[in-house]
Amino acid sequence: MKIMAVNAGSSSIKFQLLDMPSEKVIASGVMERIGLPEGIFTIKYDGKKEETHPVLKDHAVGVELLLKSLIEKGILKDLKEINGVGHRIVQGGEYFKDSTLVDEEVVKKISDLADLAPLHNPAHIIGIRAFQKALPNVPEVVVFDTVFHQTMAEEAYMYATPYEWYTKYGIRKYGAHGTSHQYVSHRCAEIMGKDVKDTKIIVCHLGNGASICAVEGGKCKDTSMGLTPLEGIPMGTRSGNIDPTVVSFIATHENKTASEVVNELNKKSGYLGMSGRSNDARDVTAGMEDGDHRCKLTFDVQAKRIVDYIASYYVYMGGCDAICFTAGMGENLIHLRKNILNRLGVLGVKLDEEANNVRAEEREITTKDSKIRAFIIPTNEEVMIARDVVRVAHLG
Ligand code: ADP
Asked: Which of 183, 282, 380 to mutate to test the pocket of ligand 1 (most atoms within 8 A of CB)?
């Protein structure tokens, strides 16, 4: 059976075609610059990587081209071989408690929730429509980033703001990267040879967007992202937590609206704003190695904030069996993992420097006598999406 896992953004569609239940990747890639004069279509299959520059007028054109290419390249003989499509959806609010089959009511609900994810949810719907058009008889399933965090207790997800903001507008913490946190924590339990129900795990998903999650017994107990992905630790271009008064201060002094300032907190802060170089951790690492103080400070501020969360979740869960690192930076940034784990000596964490000296490999990176184990676990959101398509559409 073959399942297409899709992550549609406003100008891009990432895809992965998986064979299930073997979970082997048959093809993967991305269509970028949709709607611009020249698009980019990258596809990997059979150990090959090909890039072309077609005009991708809209998402529907992109999906048609993708499906046509799968046939032309001999990856599929017939589109009927695709048994299901799974879409990653950023915001499911309080309404969606599990992945679900797509119907018109589900699409309407995702659209209603766009207020909470204005950049993402509308783009996801465009992606859903494009696949509905191209593969009308294939079941589509939506898999929400927020579902995994729906197990947080009220005390963890409520903000101490006027209660009516919650009842009227749904202002609360929803979290993000749920599919990744779930995959990594459950995989970690597997590696440790424990039933996930008996584990307390802290997952550090450190990509361009980044969040920390406390997972107790396989369920989310707390997470660092909030109403939107701006909350939590500093990220590629996002500030993470700040005093909200900064917004009105900068708005007044630079003659900007609150939305303009929040836009700068989302797009011009974090690594980019702090280092003044780039949002890409590789560039900031190069700067640090050249002795640039601001680049070093960028990593120190982030590591300190990550450790603040780890310490708080350690207390909230009443202990911790393992800390996991995942996503672009978590998997690849040797110096950042070291910076974080060396700050946790008081909890009995002992880094194994040699073991830590790897990139993107599933591996334990603490010594045998470390009181909390730490692991690098490359995330796999696509596999989680494909598994949910099989489960929810009863394809198994
Ligand atoms: P997102 O999915 O949120 O866009 P990713 O998980 O792809 O983000 O992570 C992107 C970050 O990971 C970037 O800051 C990038 O510098 C970093 N990264 C990716 N690969 C490497 C690598 N080989 N070495 C160091 N950093 C890396």
From this structure: 282
Residue 249 CA to ligand 1 centre (angstroms): 32
Torsions phi, psi of 229, nearest 5?
-70, 10
Nearest to 88 by CA among 12, 190, 202: 12
From 332, 334, 336, 361, give the residue whose CB has the most ligand 1 atoms within 8 Å, as the site to mutate.
332
> pLDDT value at position 118?
83
Residue 284 alpha carbon to ligand 1 centre in Å: 12
Helix axes 245-253, 258-267, angle to 10 degrees: 110
pLDDT given for residue 334 in this prediction: 98
Distance CA 55, CA 33 (A): 9
C-alpha dist (Å) from residue 305 to 52, 301, 313: 41, 6, 13
Catalytic site residue 58? no
**Rg, Å, the chain Cα set:** 21
pLDDT, residue 130, reads: 92
Instruction: Return the pLDDT at 10.
Output: 80
Determine the Cα–Cα distance for residues 51 and 179; give it in Å rounded to an integer: 28
pLDDT of residue 69: 97
Is the previous residue joined to 122 through a cis bond, with omega within 30 degrees of 0?
no
10-residue mean pLDDT series, the chain (396 residues): 93 95 97 92 97 95 95 96 97 96 97 89 93 95 97 98 97 96 98 98 96 98 96 97 98 98 96 96 98 98 98 98 98 98 98 97 98 97 97 94
C-alpha pair distances (Å), 349 with each of 316, 341, 365, 366: 18, 7, 10, 7
Phi-psi region of 113 (alpha: psi -120 to 50; beta: other; left: phi over 0): alpha
Q: Could you count the other beta carbons within 10 Å of the beta carbon of residue 167?
A: 9
19, 78, 145, 283: which is the annotated catalytic residue? 145
State the closest ligand 1 atom to the C-alpha of 210, by its place in the atom list counted from 1. 3
pTM: 0.94
Chain-centroid distance of CA 395 in Å reads 26
Residue type, 74: G
| Closest residue by Cα to residue 207 from 189, 187, 173, 184 | 184
Which string of b and e fits 176-196 if b means at least 16 CB within 10 Å?
bbbbbbbbbbbbbbebbeeeb
Q: Whose CA is nearest to atom 7 of ligand 1?
A: 328
